[in-house]
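R.M. (postdoc): so does anyone remember the format we settled on? I'll just put the structure tokens first.
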């Protein structure tokens, strides 16, 4: 009886972006979208020849934005035979723009320390698949001894729960954590089988099977308070690669369904920032904003003070007013103790 092949580990966001950056640095002529989706770690596992890869293409579009946000110069090259066509666009990262400046040099001791730091970074944050990425670059024309330290990784700050949740997913473990929802006075313990951690609208979300509710739920990592701990003796089957797509699809659907109508003060900071994100709402100063979480949007809008006026929905109006009233009340002058005693 032949042994059952081990199920591959889910590919994390960092692994996929790291592999994508390496591939785009390695190419001189650029890679087409099909080249990337069919060969790069994190995409190729879900790519299907001749099938609908729309969700994978949307993932690539989000990853392009993340790469540019990290300050990495991503170029697009049009085909001379088909100018203006997105289908034949090629993508690359110009190596000259991402190299260390020519006037910077390191001593042998400094090189040794940098190599050690690079090794620790790789070993501490990437799986065996991505640690083999340098070897795979041989097939793309780059010597595997090409120093990775020439490309300094820029890591986005994240919530402390990110790493333990990723490890729990890799090991098929159930976790428990305290979760504080807006409006509640104390956090509640949640027991969850983590299925995916995804980035949506600039915020990290956990998509998992809530063991008490018996259904999948989405949690904001910023609302997890305290440590994430594993539940001893409880193991689950590792999640398939489609869980992240399902989580993002649900968040996208929620984002499209929820629309806020606001007006902004012309020429204000709110007008500049919010008008770019929203759609015209009819009147000259009105804007329609899609959102996934009413409390997060209320926090943002309340921060603009009188520059923003919320027209709908009622839940958002109440949430913004509550925040403004709390600000007002916290700035009320303190009662004079002598006056209080004289009453």
């Amino acid at each position: 009886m032949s042994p059952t092949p081990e199920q591959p580990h889910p590919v994390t966001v960092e692994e996929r972006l790291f592999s994508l950056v390496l591939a785009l640095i390695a190419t001189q002529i650029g890679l087409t979208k099909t080249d990337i989706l069919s060969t790069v770690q994190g995409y190729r596992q879900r790519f299907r020849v001749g099938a609908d890869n729309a969700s994978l293409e949307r993932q690539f579009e989000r990853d392009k934005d993340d790469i540019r946000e990290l300050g990495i110069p991503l170029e697009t090259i049009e085909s001379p035979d088909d100018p203006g066509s997105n289908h034949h666009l090629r993508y690359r990262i110009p190596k000259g723009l991402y190299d260390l400046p020519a006037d910077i040099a390191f001593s042998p001791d400094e090189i040794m320390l940098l190599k050690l730091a690079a090794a620790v970074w790789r070993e501490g944050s990437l799986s065996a698949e991505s640690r083999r990425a340098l070897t795979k670059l041989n097939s793309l024309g780059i010597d595997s001894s090409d120093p990775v330290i020439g490309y300094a990784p820029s890591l986005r700050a994240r919530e402390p729960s990110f790493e333990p949740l990723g490890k729990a997913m890799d090991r098929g473990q159930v976790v428990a954590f305290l979760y504080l929802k807006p409006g509640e006075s104390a956090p509640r313990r949640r027991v969850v089988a983590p299925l995916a951690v995804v980035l949506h609208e600039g915020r990290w979300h956990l998509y998992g099977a809530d063991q008490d509710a018996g259904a999948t739920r989405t949690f904001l990592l910023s609302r997890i308070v305290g440590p994430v701990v594993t539940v001893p003796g409880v193991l689950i089957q590792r999640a398939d690669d489609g869980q992240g797509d399902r989580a993002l699809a649900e968040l996208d659907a929620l984002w499209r369904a929820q629309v806020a109508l606001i007006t902004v003060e012309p020429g204000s900071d709110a007008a500049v920032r919010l008008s770019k994100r929203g759609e015209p709402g009819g009147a000259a100063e009105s804007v329609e904003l899609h959102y996934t979480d009413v409390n997060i949007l209320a926090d943002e809008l309340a921060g603009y003070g009188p520059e923003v006026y919320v027209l709908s929905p009622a839940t958002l109006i109440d949430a913004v007013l509550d925040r403004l009233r709390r600000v007002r009340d916290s700035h009320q002058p303190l009662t004079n103790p002598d006056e209080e005693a004289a009453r």
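R.M.: ...and that's the designed sequence above, right after the tokens. Also worth knowing: DSSP finds 13 helices and twelve strands in the chain. The domain at 162-245 is CATH 2.30.30 (SH3 type barrels.).
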